[in-house]
Amino acid sequence: MDDDRTEPALDLVGAWAKRCYFAGRAVMDAALRPYDLGSVQWYVLHRLVEDGPTMQRDLVRRLDIERATLSGIVATLVRKGLVEQEPDQTDQRQKRLRLTAAGTALWYELPDLSFIRTAAFGGLDEADLDATVRVLRTASERLENLLQRGARP
Q1: Minimal CA–CA distance to 44: which of 89, 75, 88?
Q2: What share of the chain has pLDDT > 70, as a percent?
Q3: Domain ranges of the chain
């Protein structure tokens, strides 16, 4: 017989992980609002700053978002003049993204968002953080594997 006391604790892990994610994203969006950027737009700019010109399909995998979602975000960044989208030289169907001069200039005006991580996790025991990462990584991998098998036990 299952112990009913453990089930709520398992439910709480997901609930608190979700709540933490949404709270962090809300703080990030609030910090970026004066710059007319959203958090996912920031992640695209961040990857282009870190990696340089990048194939759009690679960003889909790197950011773990849907292709259609990224297409809309890229279109917005192109419209704002922050990103250039050009056909790849070897495969014209594929798009290569690069920051524009305006995108680069904006990037260096943006606030350092590490304050969010510090506010959330600063002062917490390192062993607790390591255990949290280990548990969430394992749970994520298990769920991804389940999905690959067709979401059946």
Answers
A1: 75
A2: 91
A3: 8-112, 123-153
User: Of the CATH numbers 3.40.640.10, 1.10.10.10, 3.30.450.40, 2.60.120.10, which one belongs to the domain with range 8-112?
Assistant: 1.10.10.10
Sequence-separated (6 or more) residues with CB below 8 Å from residue 97: 44, 48, 53, 54, 55, 56, 59, 74, 83, 84, 85
The percent of residues above 90 in pLDDT, for the chain, comes to: 74
Contact by Cβ (8 Å): 97, 83: yes
Q: Helix or strand or coil: residue 74? A: helix
| Sheet containing 54-55: order of strands | 54-55, 95-99, 83-87
pLDDT of residue 35: 97
